[in-house]
Amino acid sequence: MSGAAPSAAAPLFGKVALLGVGLIGSSLALACRRHGLVGELAGYARRPETRATIERLGLTDSVHDDPAEAVAGADLVVLCVPVGANAAVAEAMAPGLKAGAIVSDVGSVKQAVIRDVGPFLPDGVHFVPGHPIAGTEHSGPEAGFADLFEERYCVLTPPPGTDEAAVEKVAELWRRCGARVEAMEAAHHDKVLAMTSHLPHLISYTIVGTAFDLAESERGEVIKYAAGGFRDFTRIAGSDPVMWRDIFLNNREAVLEILQRFGEDLSRLQRAIRWGEGEALEDLFQRTREIRRGVIQLGQAGTFDAREQKKDGQGD
Amino acid sequence: MSGAAPSAAAPLFGKVALLGVGLIGSSLALACRRHGLVGELAGYARRPETRATIERLGLTDSVHDDPAEAVAGADLVVLCVPVGANAAVAEAMAPGLKAGAIVSDVGSVKQAVIRDVGPFLPDGVHFVPGHPIAGTEHSGPEAGFADLFEERYCVLTPPPGTDEAAVEKVAELWRRCGARVEAMEAAHHDKVLAMTSHLPHLISYTIVGTAFDLAESERGEVIKYAAGGFRDFTRIAGSDPVMWRDIFLNNREAVLEILQRFGEDLSRLQRAIRWGEGEALEDLFQRTREIRRGVIQLGQAGTFDAREQKKDGQGD
Fold it and tell me: What is the pTM for the complete model shown?
């Protein structure tokens, strides 16, 4: 049976299987439905509660507790589990894959997924790893929404020699979901994301943890006066714990490398404060404004910035 | 002459002098006008360009290049300069202060302002240090807007023995500007703000600086893919360099103390990543969600959060 929404264009894929239906999986399901991109959607989830939610929300046409069953007859399979779970799910689904199927994923690290999933894929199955750089601090199938990917980048990291038609089909899926698709080497992706995403999350988790360890009375006031900048960090540090644990463990080298640099830079600032070196501080603060300008010019600052400028008290 | 806007209530103060008319000073001027809180507004600015802008925008009734001239006849004087400039401005204004005047400020550190300003105030002048916890990453007289302080906290830190009527008048001014007024000891304020505001800014400046030092090609991509979490840091790190230099230099002890704790916590996480201790990571990430919940419950998460959840790609 088919639950696809009516659309002027023909569906890109006959059947798509989503292995894992959290924030990204459910958003992808909703976006595929809205834009009429697939004939049929199958979903796999490990936990019975999640499967019940998927059914209740009608996110996929069928819901399965066995990956091999979910992928049976699918033209496209998208792994949407935390990256640490990829190997087990890939092994379990492999026997069910049909010849010529395309396998993709949405994980935040790309070398690890190639390492973990690749070996389980039979010949004739095309592997196109991908990473939609989109999300919120909320998780689970109820957190999804159809326009999550609109105007967001989606980076594909197909290993050399990957079938070009398969890459183009996956790219077209994301484009029709509203994303801007880019190609990159997996190792390069992991380095860039370590800086733009993994380190910021690690720092946010740390600083919120530091606040948590304050004396009870101070902790209450930290929450009360969170508007001074801390609040942004709490939002990031509210992100899914298992997903982020897996990211750090699976992008270890790039994260440790950038963390090392960050630590050195922080020590230098610490020293400047201790010795009252105002010029060194001001110099850095002037330079960081340039990066901010670059971010704003590239439009990644987001439309809500104008509102933040008006209402968000983080200035002093 | 009087430039006050019409209002049902009588003005709280006859004449108010704003020494420094940047983001906070100009916002305070606009809020005072909108709510009819003052009979007359005088402004002081060091730089001729700033004075020209204040005149062009009509932010104050008179504009001065001499603090003593600006405060002549003023019932309330509010220091709105970077905290490092307080001593010089206080010394310069002192000869012009009228007997019984109230002096306040808006600085982000409170022990330093008491140390720097107090000695210059003649007997009979009341000193009520204050800190509206509001702002944006923008600076200067053109960045101000009348509702900056709406539903924001304003912390007053009057030293023991301060005239209670003077404290209440300053409190009422901020309440009529829309702020929630709280009283606190100066030392406690500086500790709490070191955690909620100063450390987050320091970290943001550092991480954006780390990105800036990457190779040219990587730097461009960091800006391009900033949506992954980094973008929030660039906004904070776009804040006024001189103001923040002064904050770190003038809240040195509290900032270094909290920075020390943060550094230890970060080292622990670094070690957990290096040795693959997934449980330690997950434990922390679960705990930080509690703080986030506290922030949301206390309403400091801000109304734009719902929008962020929908559009802001920082998740993975």
Answer: 0.87
